[in-house]
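Might you be able to check the backbone structure tokens below? Thank you kindly.
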Amino acid sequence: MKLLKATGGFSTAPLRPRDRPSPSVPPTSHSPCSIQQRTAPLSSPYPATMASTMSAYKEKMKEMSMLSLICSCFHSQPHLNKMYKYGDMEVKPISKRASGQSFELILKAPADLSPDRPQPLSSPPKKKDMSLDEVQKRLEAAEERRKSQEAMVLKQLAEKREHEREVLNKALEENNNFSKMAEEKLNYKMEANKENREAYLNALKLRLHEKELHAAGVRRNKELQARLSG
């Protein structure tokens, strides 16, 4: 059984001015809520002690809230110790004071709980100690896995580089083909322009030659006419 202690208290908020008892008006009732203020006679052997006690009591009563006064009036007799049950817990009051309430919190043992309660998880089985041969085998297996992973990574890198090389070669080949085709087109245009120019020059020379022949014929005709007329 587990025992736990807890305390709870009332509020100690100060009274409002209208709720505080007036010191000038003496109480007329002798009910449990009434407070009688009595001063010690001057012939008392302890006048200073009684005065300090009364002043401290007055200050304490001023600090108590109206709720505390009402509760003290209606519950002047202490309650009997009763046992309260809340599921798997039992609450047993111990003592009650103005500052708070103390009680015991009793938890039921695991055997007292319902059988439908889920059972706690069992601890995993303890691993047995491995021998030197098993450790060596595990190390060798780990080394083999490391080598296989390393070989796989290297293979992937080689494939990636080969793919990059193929892409680069293809790009270079396409560039060379484009350059070659552009050069061929340029040469064709230049040759066509050259042929056209040569044809134009030949035609021009032919026209000039024809003009020269025509001019020579005209001169001969003029010379013949001049001879005949002369």
Q: What stands out?
A: Helices lie at 47-63, 66-74, 132-229. The chain has a mean pLDDT of 72. Residues 91 and 192 are 115 Å apart (CA to CA).
